[in-house]
Amino acid sequence: MRFRDVARVTAYAGDLVSQLGPSFTFQKRETRHPGLDGARGLAVLAMVVGHTLDALLAPAVRAHPWVQTYWTFRGITAPLFLLVSGWAVVAALGSRPTAARDTYGKRLRRALLLIFLGYLVHWPGWSAVRHMGWTEKMLTTVLTFDALQCIGFALLFGATLLALAPVRWGRTVVLVALAVALPLVSSTMWSLGEGLPGPLRQFIGSGGTSRFPFFPWASYFFAGALAAHLLNVLRPGWTQGLALVVLGGGLIWVMRGQEADWGPSSAWLVAYRVGQGLLVLGIVNLLPQRVSGTLAPLGRLSLWIYVLHLPIVYGWASYSGLSSRVGPTLGLLPALSIGVGLLLGCALVARIGSWIRDQARPWRTGSTTLQASVGSLGSRGG
């Protein structure tokens, strides 16, 4: 970079700081893992289309053998979503020893947002609450525990433990303990949870009252976090992709040699699904970026697509969703068309909301512009 280019960047930076105010800093924004957004986008695509087909497909169509085969593969969607969420949290910490403590406030706010949104999308409406009265049934309905709450509480507990753990070896010990111990103690926790209030039973998983109880579903989150921690020494892309394929494929091979247990609290099932998730994440890493890049925009908007599509498919409060208004009456092509249209519509709304948010926080876009300017001047300077 020539001297005059340095001077131009310095002058530009001074003008930018004066415009954005004293709160602006020149910290480099976190780079996104090339395969993360693609894998998350794939999971979101499968989730929205899967929920729509589940709500709208006629029974005769659902009974078709290849539809049942698709339903079998759908079992990896939610584990992949949690696995990638855990990976993203630890990958963002980087290699700085104090990163878990420095970013704890940010993680805490994110966890509380996920928990709030998770309960919000299951709000039954004031009329239903008044009808049920102050009963355990009302509390259980209002505090329905689902995937977002599972991720939120996993992030809350994980971020807290990582911030308190010793700097040198604490991150490894905490993540290994959580990833391994949670599936092993899930059956015991389900037994101990019997007789507790309904919301706590949903959190624990006792009696099958929740589809995504903390035990064992948080295991996928911490397994992804552990994989990110162990593989952070490898370059993202082909190097990490090959390692993930080997790790995921090896785990599947080992689990296939064990006695299968497809029970909802099974440690075998968790390990098997983790292997599948790592394999998918590895394959997405190995794909050309022009392929994974088509899914990446969906991955970056995954939270808001999730929040937007659930009320449309299943309803919210006193408003009926597609499952009630249309019901399981459609053939494959109409249901699939509605699912794809819903996905694109939710993505568009989420993108508009993201753009409005960026306009309200110009210091973030200013940071990106400055980095681009520096990069272009450097390339001209030779």
What does this structure look like?
The chain is an all-alpha fold. The chain has helices spanning 3-20, 36-56, 59-62, 65-73, 77-93, 99-102, 104-120, 126-132, 136-142, 147-164, 170-192, 198-204, 214-230, 238-256, 267-286, 289-300, 302-314, 322-325, 332-360, 362-381. Helix 7 (104-120) packs antiparallel against helix 10. Pfam families: Acyl_transf_3. One of its GO terms (molecular function) is acyltransferase activity, transferring groups other than amino-acyl groups. The chain crosses the membrane at residues 38-58, 70-90, 111-129, 141-165, 172-192, 212-231, 238-255, 267-286, 298-317, 329-350.
Give structural attributes.
single chain, 382 residues, mainly alpha, 0% strand, globular, disordered C terminus
Give the N-to-C terminal Cα separation: 6 Å
**What would you report as the Rg, rounded to the nearest angstrom?**
23 Å
Number of helices: 20
H-E string = HHHHHHHHHHHHHHHHHHHH
How would you classify the helix and strand content by structural class? mainly alpha
Shape: globular
Averaged pLDDT: 85
Task: Work out the helicity level.
Answer: over 70%
Total number of strands: 0
Question: Tell me about the biggest sheet?
Answer: none
β-sheet strand percentage:
under 5%
Runs with pLDDT <50, length 5+?
Answer: 9-31, 367-382
